Q: What sequence folds into this?
C-alpha cells in the first residue's frame, strides 16, 4: 500500500509541475490550472488511502464538504475586479490551515517529548516553522484582503519608528517560545501554553508587518505572503512525511519568491524596504507647476478622443485598475477592433505592478480575448511611446507618473514607469482627479499634451466606440 501511495504522490506533484508550466501563457493557463487541480485531487486520494485505518471518517468527509462549499462559490462568482482580494483570502486560508495542522499534530502527540519514539529534528523544526510562518501568512493575508477590499484604509497604519523594534520583539518572542518547546524544557500543560504563544505572537507579527505597508505595495505583499504559505506547507509536509505537501509547498514557495523579487525590481524597491513600511493610501492632490502654482487638467470629449485616435498611426492603450473596476476590457477590445479596421496599429502597455495583483491586466485582457502578441511588457514598449500618436491611459496612475524619473523628492522616484508622457498626445480616462494607490499626484494629468476624459471607464470607452463608428 505504501508503494501505491508514493506512486500517486509522484503522479500528483508531476502534474503540479506540468500544470505550473502551463501558467506561463494565457493560451495554456486554463489547461495548466485544470492539470494542477487533477494533481491535487490525486494527492487528496493518496492521503485518504494512507489514513485508511482512521476512525475519523465523518470529520474528514465533513471537512471536504465544507471546504468545497466554501471554496467553489467565491472562485466561480467573484468578479475579476475582486480577484486580488480572493487570491489574498485563499492564500491566507492556506497559511492558516498549515498553522492549525502544526498545532493539531502537537496536541495529538501531547508535545514533542511524548512521541512513541524520540522525534527527529526535522519533525520538531518543521512543525514549529510551519506554525510560525503559517500564522504570519494567515493574519497578514487578512490585512491584505482588508486593504484591497477597502475595509481597511489603504494608507500605512503603524507606530512610526517604534514599528520595526516591535516587529523584531514579536519575532524574537515567537522563535524563543518555539525553542523552549523544541528543547523540551516544559511539562505537557505548560508546553501547550508555549505553543499557543508561538501562534499568537506569530499572528500579531503578521498583522504588525502588513498594516504599515501602503496600498501601492500590495501586489508585492500578496506575492510574498504566497511564498511564505508555500514554505510553511513544505515544512509541515516535512514534519508529516507527506511528499505531496513537500513538493507542492516548495513549488509555491520558490515561484512566489521569484515573482516577489521580480516585482520588487519592477518597482525599484527592495523587499526589506517594502516590509519596513510602504507608501500609499490614495486621496486627492492639486496639480502644481514648476513655480508652485496650481494647474488645471484639460477635459476632453468622447468625440475629440475618437477623432484623435481614428487619424493616428499608432495608439498605445495603458490599462490600470480603473479598467478593472469598470470591467471595461471587453469595451476596449471592441474599440481597438474598430481602430485596427481603420488601419491604426493598437498595442497594450503592461506594467508589472499595474492593478492589484501580479498579472492583473494580462488576465483581464486575456478574458476579453485580446491577442497575447499585442500585450507588450514595459521594457519592450517604452521605446515606442516617442513614436506614438496617442497614448490612451485607462485608470492607471502611479505606473505612468513621470515624477518617478524626474522628481528626486517623489516617494516613487527611481521606480520604472511607462513613458506615457513621451507620446505626442495623451488621453486619460478617470472618474476623478483622485490620486492612485501611492497617494501622490501625477504631473502627467496636467501636461499640455494631456486631456482628461472623466467618467466610468466602460461608459467612456463605449462612447468613444460609438463616435468611431460614426466616422
A:
Amino acid at each position: 500500500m505504501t508503494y501505491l501511495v508514493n506512486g500517486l504522490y509522484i503522479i500528483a506533484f508531476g502534474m503540479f509541475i506540468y500544470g505550473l508550466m502551463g501558467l506561463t501563457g494565457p493560451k495554456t493557463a486554463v489547461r495548466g490550472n485544470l492539470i494542477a487541480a487533477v494533481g491535487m485531487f490525486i494527492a487528496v486520494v493518496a492521503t485518504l488511502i494512507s489514513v485508511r485505518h482512521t476512525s475519523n471518517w465523518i470529520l474528514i468527509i465533513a471537512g471536504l464538504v465544507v471546504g468545497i462549499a466554501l471554496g467553489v462559490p467565491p472562485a466561480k462568482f467573484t468578479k475579476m475586479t475582486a480577484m486580488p482580494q480572493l487570491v489574498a483570502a485563499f492564500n491566507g486560508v492556506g497559511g492558516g490551515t498549515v498553522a492549525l495542522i502544526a498545532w493539531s499534530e502537537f496536541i495529538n502527540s501531547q508535545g514533542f517529548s511524548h512521541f512513541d519514539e524520540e522525534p527527529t529534528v526535522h519533525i520538531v523544526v518543521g512543525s514549529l516553522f510551519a506554525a510560525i510562518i503559517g500564522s504570519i501568512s494567515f493574519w497578514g493575508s487578512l490585512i491584505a484582503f482588508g486593504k484591497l477590499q477597502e475595509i481597511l484604509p489603504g494608507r500605512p497604519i503603524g507606530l512610526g519608528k517604534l514599528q520595526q523594534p516591535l516587529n523584531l520583539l514579536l519575532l524574537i518572542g515567537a522563535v524563543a517560545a518555539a525553542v523552549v518547546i523544541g528543547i523540551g524544557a516544559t511539562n505537557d500543560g505548560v508546553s501547550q501554553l508555549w505553543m499557543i504563544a508561538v501562534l499568537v505572537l506569530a499572528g500579531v507579527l503578521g498583522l504588525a508587518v502588513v498594516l504599515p505597508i501602503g496600498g501601492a505595495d500590495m501586489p508585492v505583499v500578496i506575492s510574498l505572503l504566497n511564498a511564505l504559505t508555500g514554505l510553511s506547507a513544505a515544512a509541515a509536509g516535512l514534519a508529516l512525511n507527506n511528499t505531496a505537501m513537500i513538493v507542492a509547498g516548495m513549488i509555491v514557495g520558490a515561484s512566489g519568491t521569484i515573482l516577489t523579487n521580480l516585482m520588487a525590481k519592477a518597482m525599484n524597491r527592495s523587499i526589506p524596504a517594502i516590509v519596513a513600511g510602504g507608501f500609499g493610501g490614495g486621496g486627492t492632490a492639486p496639480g502644481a507647476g514648476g513655480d508652485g502654482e496650481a494647474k488645471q487638467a484639460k477635459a476632453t470629449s468622447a468625440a475629440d478622443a475618437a477623432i484623435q485616435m481614428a487619424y493616428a498611426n499608432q495608439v498605445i492603450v495603458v490599462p490600470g485598475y480603473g479598467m478593472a473596476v469598470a470591467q471595461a476590457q471587453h469595451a476596449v477590445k471592441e474599440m481597438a477592433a474598430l481602430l485596427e479596421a481603420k488601419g491604426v496599429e493598437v498595442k497594450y502597455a503592461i506594467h508589472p505592478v499595474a492593478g492589484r495583483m501580479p498579472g492583473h491586466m494580462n488576465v483581464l485582457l486575456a478574458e476579453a480575448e485580446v491577442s497575447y502578441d499585442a500585450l507588450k511588457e514595459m521594457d519592450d514598449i517604452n521605446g515606442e511611446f516617442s513614436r506614438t500618436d496617442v497614448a490612451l491611459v485607462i485608470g492607471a496612475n502611479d505606473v505612468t507618473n513621470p515624477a518617478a524619473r524626474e522628481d528626486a523628492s517623489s516617494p516613487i522616484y527611481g521606480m520604472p514607469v511607462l513613458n506615457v508622457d513621451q507620446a505626442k498626445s495623451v488621453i486619460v480616462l478617470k472618474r476623478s482627479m483622485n490620486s492612485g494607490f501611492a497617494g501622490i499626484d501625477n504631473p502627467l494629468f496636467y501636461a499640455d499634451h494631456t486631456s482628461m476624459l472623466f467618467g466610468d471607464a466602460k461608459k467612456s470607452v463605449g462612447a468613444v466606440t460609438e463616435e468611431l463608428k460614426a466616422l
Observations:
- The chain has 17 helices and ten strands.
- The domain at 287-470 is CATH 3.40.50.1220 (Rossmann fold).
